[in-house]
Amino acid sequence: MATSQTVTLNRSRRPQVLVLAREALRVCKLRIGVTIAFTALAGASAVPGAEAAGPALALLVLSVLLASAAAGGFNQYMEADLDRCMSRTRARPFASGRLARHRGWLAGFALAVVVAVGLAAWATNAVAAAFVLLGALFYGVIYTLWLKRRTWLNIVLGGLAGSFALLAGAAAADPGLHPVALLLALVLFLWTPSHFWSLAIALQREYAKAGVPMLPVLIGNRAAARIVLANTVLLVTASVLPVFFGLGGLYLAGALGGGSYLLYQNLRMVRDPVPRHAMASFHASLVQLTLLLVAVIADGGF
Where are the domains of the chain? Predict the structure, then answer.
């Protein structure tokens, strides 16, 4: 009888463990983390003539993913109140209450960053590890704690987290930081406003309700759409510059193809800044970034 009850209890616990694991993965924003880790891989591929060792590079990418997951989890922990105000985020684990907020989570996030930075330093070098740390700090602390609720510059400066991931990958290949790496970091920095301000135009009312000073909340959707377009012009221009420092035709094709599509969607949004066009612009920025990063890696491979 006791054995039967034990088996039943074990079976009932398994779904609970699986649910907890699934919610923990949602907390860590793994989709964003995978993108950032892919950015680090592109950074390592971008440096002409330099090749990072396979196992070392794999560990560096893993460290970026781990640091990004910790920063994303900390962001959700600290912004549970804001997330409840928006339809896009109110179902997140901390916002919905499916996961209880306690200090154990904070200790876990901090430990994950320490492990990530240590792993990057051990596998590659101190420069790459420093960029892994800066990426986590800029998203987790500077963006989440200092900027998000205070200024429209929140996503501009917070977007440096993606640039630092790319620089971490580049530093793993060459700690001296080749000009191509610096230019691609600039491209990532310029990409973030076009990406997030498009989303903010689509969700302007929700950001206003939550009290987040995103640019469209402060100046209106039409003016914000024009600024997004101007920023994208700078973004596409900057994305061409690495060709003059060693990247080739494959990269140029990806940069121009993705950039042209993003400009097209931005123009539609400027003409009619309704949520449908703003979301199309938001998704176009994802297409542009994906094409750019794939082109970097493909060009480096050839």
Answer: 16-174, 178-302
Q: What's the chain's length in residues? A: 302
For residue range 37-67, what is the model confidence (pLDDT) as tens digits? Answer: 999 999 998 887 666 668 889 999 999 999 9
Domain 16-174 -> CATH class: mainly alpha
DSSP character for 98? S
Given CA atoms 24, 130, 155, 180 in this order, what sign does their dihedral have? negative
Query: pTM score, two decimals?
Result: 0.88
**Number of other residues whose CB lies within 10 A of the CB of residue 254:** 23
User: Which value, to the nearest 10 degrees, does the dihedral of the CA atoms of residues 301, 263, 236, 199 take?
Assistant: -90
Q: In whole angstroms, give the CA distance from residue 36 to residue 177.
A: 19
- Residues 169 and 171: their CA atoms lie apart, in Å, by 5
Residues sharing a CB contact under 8 Å with residue 128, sequence separation 6 or more, in sequence order: 60, 120, 121, 168, 169, 171, 172, 175
Amino acid making up residue 20? L
Q: What Å distances lie between residue 213 and 148, 161, 266, CA to CA?
A: 8, 20, 22
Checking 110-118 for CB contacts under 8 A at 24+ apart, the result is 110/70, 112/66, 112/67, 112/69, 112/70, 112/73, 113/66, 113/67, 113/70, 113/71, 113/140, 115/63, 115/66, 116/63, 116/64, 116/66, 116/67, 116/70, 117/63, 117/67
pLDDT in tens, 98-147: 888 888 999 999 999 999 999 999 999 999 999 999 999 999 999 999 99
**Residue 272 three-state SS:** coil
DSSP conformational letter for 247 = -
